[in-house]
Design brief:
The complex is a heterodimer of chains A (322) and B (248).
Chain A lengths: L1 E5 L2 E2 L2 E2 L1 H17 L2 E7 L12 E7 L9 H14 L2 E6 L3 H14 L2 E6 L5 E2 L2 E7 L4 E7 L4 E5 L14 E4 L12 E7 L11 E5 L10 H10 L2 E4 L1 H5 L20 E5 L5 H7 L4 E6 L6 H4 L2 E4 L2 H18 L2
Parallel strand pairs in A: 1-4, 1-6, 4-5, 5-12, 6-11, 7-11, 14-15, 14-16, 16-17, 17-18
Antiparallel strand pairs in A: 2-3, 8-9, 9-10
Chain B lengths: L1 E5 L2 E3 L7 E2 L4 E2 L6 E3 L1 H17 L2 E7 L5 H10 L3 E6 L5 H15 L3 E5 L10 H9 L2 E12 L2 E8 L2 E8 L2 E5 L14 H9 L2 E5 L7 E7 L8 E2 L5 H11 L4
Parallel strand pairs in B: 1-6, 1-8, 6-7, 7-13, 8-12, 9-12
Antiparallel strand pairs in B: 2-5, 3-4, 9-10, 10-11
Classes of the chains: A alpha/beta (322), B alpha/beta (248).
Chain lengths: 322, 248
């Protein structure tokens, strides 16, 4: 018996979330007195999976799986789960993992709980805590099936080192035509930009910026911090910024370490999307803006004066701490 | 083309979240319920197919009689008929089993569900319905075109979007982008009057088992007050982010 974790990679290298889900899987394996096995697609090597407690990496090298395909990936992961007799399977909360999670759950007859934020409070009955009501509450949820599937929220558990030797074995799932009913034709991805999903820091701006022509300083601030840029709903609705940057209840959720909101008043739908971020900084001219109630740090001031100075201060800080 | 739109009956986004019965039940007292926003985008796209390509559109919800006003609103927006599966929505798996039964018996070509409901945020029902009915599945769908049984869809991925092709039968997990918010329809008086005459079929549950159950709810610990930094003292902000919050 093992705990199986799906470790996502890009161009052969593991994503940071792969190490976070591995850390979490190791925590569960310790509770159950077992080991962690991982499955990945086209990983170059074991990377740092051993550092985070993974004992064996089952690496899939099938050319048909070069591009992410939810149906085929779910089938392959299900076969790996059966091969290692996994009672618990852990995936992340990325768009891809959420896509394949429900398919995988049906393949394995595994009770699925997504948005999990902590290790199980009990292994028997198996009880996990997940966020609900867009992070306004938590539900302690029991899973009653023999196999259990957990989707871990980003940044909820963090990285925990548990060094072990990780061996890599080839894993060749047996796939059928049904797995490829959906065919990926083209991918349009800005490769040079930090994405909101992967970013540790997100710099977000709203109507207070007065127009799309003023986004240069937002991008400069994001550049200094190595951050992704985001925006409020009215800004994407007005076409100032692309829809993919819209953060909120019907937009993208953000679970970054630091979220900087500039010229955003803090509508409840926006706050729902950023609740999972650890530290929130708000810059706004209106001292009564509701966002200040949700923020950790705040600056009451004009973004057009504050942001350029903040950029210079951060540049100096970076230079001093390089 | 026969379309089924799965509707979740959810608390309005501004609702206060409280619990009763020793924190085991959601407190519906004073809460306004609405069509789940992700489902509303899907319903409007279904209306487009109905008007431009001659599709029929049914809507379905799993739940008790309290969900019927939400189904009536969907009828007022233009759906042809509504189905309520008469059982509480216990967990994603049980709901998906009930919906899969409706899909199989109704012979639907296209099932549109929201990518997640804004109450439990599980995001699992659309994919489960697809797997249970042997349909293709496209999640986080932001564009959908159908010609005959050929489908071209665009879905949002982390950091961009991708275009896929597939064929009917299809289940999508839809969201904003399927239509723009400005295209969402508000029921007019004629629609509301017509909705009263449209069929709302109450279907007996197949008594699908659940795989998970909520033991209790809890709310996050109260947050401390904001630390305000003077606009002319941004060195302090940098210092706080570095030494206190440890995020830079």
């Amino acid at each position: 018996m093992s705990v199986l974790v799906y470790t996502e990679s890009e161009n052969g290298a593991f994503k940071k979330t792969a190490y976070e889900v591995s850390s979490y899987a190791k925590g569960i394996a310790d509770m159950l007195g077992t080991d962690v096995a991982a499955i990945s697609f086209h990983a170059a090597d074991a990377g740092d999976l051993g550092t985070y407690g993974v004992k064996t990496l089952h690496n899939v090298k099938d050319a048909k799986l070069d591009k992410f395909n939810a149906g085929a990936y779910a089938d392959a992961i299900a076969q790996a789960a059966k091969a290692v007799d996994a009672k618990v399977i852990v995936i992340s909360s990325s768009a891809d993992s959420k896509y394949l999670g429900s398919l995988l759950s049906v393949h394995l007859d595994a009770g699925y709980v997504s948005n999990v934020v902590a290790l199980p409070s009990s292994a028997d009955p198996f009880t996990v805590k997940r966020s609900v009501f867009t992070n306004k509450a938590f539900s302690n949820t029991q899973i009653s099936t023999d196999r259990k599937l957990i989707g871990l929220s980003k940044n909820a558990y963090g990285l925990k080192e548990n060094p072990t030797d990780c061996s890599v074995v080839d894993f060749a799932p047996s796939l059928n035509d049904d797995d490829f009913k959906v065919e990926v034709k083209s991918v349009d991805k800005a490769t040079d930009k930090v994405t909101i999903a992967d970013a540790e820091i997100v710099v977000s701006a709203g109507r207070g910026m007065k127009g799309p022509e003023n986004w240069g300083m937002i991008e400069e601030l994001a550049g200094v911090l190595g951050a992704a840029t985001a925006c409020s709903k009215p800004v994407s609705d007005m076409g100032w910024r692309p829809h993919g940057e819209h953060v909120g209840q019907t937009g993208k959720p953000v679970a970054s370490s630091l979220y900087i909101a500039i010229g955003i008043s803090g509508a409840i739908q926006h706050l729902a999307g950023i609740n999972s971020s650890k530290v929130k900084v708000v810059i706004n001219t209106d001292a009564e803006a509701p966002f200040f109630k949700a923020a950790d740090y705040g600056v009451v001031g004009d973004a057009f004066e504050v942001v350029p100075v903040l950029i210079e201060k951060l540049k100096a800080f970076k230079a001093a701490n390089a | 083309m026969k379309i089924l739109v799965c509707i979740s009956h959810v608390p309005d986004t501004t609702s206060k979240i409280n619990f009763t019965d020793n924190d085991t039940q959601f407190d519906t007292n004073g809460v306004q319920f609405v069509i789940n926003p992700n489902d509303e985008f899907g319903l409007t796209r279904a209306m487009w197919f109905k008007e431009k390509q001659g599709a029929s559109v049914d809507v379905v919800t799993v739940g008790g009689a309290e969900v019927e006003p939400t189904l009536r609103k969907a009828l007022a927006i233009g759906a042809d008929q509504a189905i309520r599966v008469d059982t509480p929505a216990v967990d994603g798996y049980a709901v998906a089993k009930e919906l899969a039964d409706v899909v199989k018996n109704g012979g639907y070509d296209l099932v549109i569900a929201g990518r997640e409901s804004i109450d439990y945020n599980g995001g699992m029902v659309p994919g489960m319905v697809a797997a249970m009915t042997g349909s293709s599945f496209v999640n986080t769908c932001i564009a959908l075109e159908i010609e005959g049984s050929s489908v071209t869809a665009t879905r949002e991925i982390d950091g961009g979007k991708e275009t896929v092709t597939t064929s009917l039968p299809l289940v999508i997990g839809g969201q904003k982008g399927l239509v723009e918010e400005s295209d969402l329809r508000i029921p007019n008086m004629r629609g509301i009057m017509m909705a009263r005459k449209k069929p709302l079929d109450v279907k007996a549950s197949i008594d699908a088992s659940s795989e998970t159950s909520t033991v209790s709810f809890e709310k996050p610990a109260p947050k401390g007050a904001v630390t305000l930094v003077e606009a002319d003292n941004l060195d302090r902000l940098v210092d706080l982010l570095h030494n206190e919050a440890k995020v830079i």
